Structure prediction request, 177 residues.
Amino acid sequence: MPTEVTVQSTLFESLVRFTKPGPSLRAEFLAAGYDVDKPRATYPASVYLACQEAVLRQLYAGKERKAAQRELGSELVRMYFETLVGRVVGVALKVAGPERAMKRVALSFSSVLSPVDIETQQVGPADWRVRFRGYPFPPDAAAGTCEGALRMAGASQPRVEVERQEGAEAFDLRIRW
Prediction:
C-alpha cells in the first residue's frame, strides 16, 4: 500500500495567509483536521485537500472549478513566498532564473510534500514537460502554483497547461514562457 503524501505546515500557513479565515472557514478547517491556532509540523495530504475544498466552496463559489483551482494554486504560491521558508526559496528562485528553477522542480515540491514522484524534461528553449505521479492534488492547482513560481523566478508570461491526465493522481504539465 502506498504511503500517503504528507504536507508541511508552510502550505497551511500559506492557505491561512491567503484566506484570512473567519469563523465558518476556521470551523471547516478544524473539521478537516487542521487547527489554525495549533498547527502541527506536518499533515496528511487528505487534510490539506479537505481544507482546499472548503476554500473553493467558500471563496470561489460560482466560479468554474478548474479556473478556481488554478487561481487558488497561484494565490497559495504567492502567499508561500511570504512565509519564512518561502522567502528563502523565493530568493533562490530569483537567483536561479526560470531554466535552473525548472531543473529543480522535484526538489522544490519535495520541500513541502513528501514523498513526491516528479520528473522534468526539457522539450526546447523555455519549454518543459513536468510529470507528476502519485500526486494527490488537482493538476490545475499545480499549474497555478508553477505559473506563480516561474514568475518569481523571472519568467515573463509563463503558460502552464495540463497536457495529459491519467487518473486522479497522474498528470503532465507543459510549461512555457
Observations:
- The two ends are 38 Å apart (CA to CA).
- The first strand starts at residue 6 and ends at 8.
- Helices lie at 9-19, 23-32, 45-59, 65-80, 84-103, 105-110, 139-152.
- The mean pLDDT is 94.
